[in-house]
Design goal:
The chain is α/β, with parallel strands linked by helices and 251 residues long. The protein has helices at residues 30-39, 98-108, 129-143, 157-162, 181-184, 202-209, 226-241, and strands spanning 13-15, 25-27, 47-51, 57-65, 70-79, 87-91, 113-118, 150-151, 155-156, 169-173, 179-180, 190-194, 214-218.
């Protein structure tokens, strides 16, 4: 079945960690080759959409579909490399399952950077970044992002604060009260900071509050689960600030 480039919207959309340019022939990595050949049963001549996280998304025609490898020839760019609002989500890692959901939703909602933060009450001692990165990629493939959010290794809260970039608003989600996020959020580089299931320790809250860039924000009168708070905060921020955001430059 060889489709014309016109009906790309129904074609598989895959991230490949290799530079894409019109005319290039790329040998897709094993996971993507297996998915197209064995799962999606695609054949030579079929169209797919590939994006590399840097150059945008491209229509690509499958040149050969082998058991071990699929070769695709890159055709026209089908979507430009997007600019995402410069928003970081800093979050204390929470239980598996919930953290996978949090990372997937944050990606769909356009977060530029995901920063796991180790706090005193963080119960998760080991974070499987490879698994989380796979969720990030799958979410980006599904939602149409061309820029992947950057997922960094966990950082202790003290180190995060010590290295805080000047000028980046630190919106500290505090269930004990704070400004309305809707009022506190302002266009420009920003970060949301969400605590663990057990919340921040008092001295941690004091250290965060002492930051020149920090603003304590409330997400309402109820105690939200950490994953609920993270996604609620990102959604509110995006609704208010996404329109006038500069391109995320924090690479
Ligand atoms: N200390 C809470 C549990 C923490 S909830 C308790 O008493 O049970 C996990 C995190 O979600 C918090 O650290 C905070 O960052 C965020 N959060 C939860 N509800 C919130 C609210 N209403 N406003 C702002 N942040 C909230």
């Amino acid at each position: 079945m060889s489709e014309s480039p016109a009906d790309l919207s129904t074609t598989p959309r895959l991230y490949v960690a290799m530079p894409l340019a019109p005319g290039a022939a790329v040998v897709l990595p094993v996971p993507q080759s297996h998915y197209l050949a064995q799962v999606m049963r695609r054949q030579a001549g079929d169209m797919v959409r590939l994006f590399d996280g840097v150059n945008g998304e491209f229509a690509a025609r499958l040149q050969s579909v082998g058991r071990k490898a699929v070769v695709a020839v890159i055709e026209a760019q089908s979507a430009p490399q997007e600019s995402v609002p410069d928003l970081w989500l800093c979050f204390a890692p929470i239980k598996r399952g919930r953290i996978d959901w949090l990372v997937e939703k944050a990606c769909e909602l356009g977060v530029a950077k995901l920063v796991p933060v180790i706090t005193r009450r963080t119960i998760v001692d080991r974070l499987n970044l490879e698994r989380l990165q796979a969720h990030v990629i799958e979410a980006a493939e599904q939602c149409g992002r061309t820029a992947l959010p950057e997922l960094v290794a966990p950082v202790p809260l003290a180190a995060l604060l010590a290295g805080w970039p000047a000028g980046r608003q630190l919106l500290f989600a505090d269930e004990s009260g704070g400004e309305s996020l809707a009022r506190a959020a302002r266009p420009g580089p920003a970060a949301l900071l969400i605590g663990p299931e057990g919340g921040f320790m008092a001295e941690e809250a004091r250290a965060i509050g002492a930051m020149a860039e920090s603003v304590r924000i409330s997400l309402g009168p109820r105690i939200l689960r950490a994953d609920t708070a993270a996604i609620a905060a990102v959604s509110v921020w995006q609704a208010i600030c996404e329109i006038s955001q500069p391109v995320a430059t924090n690479r």
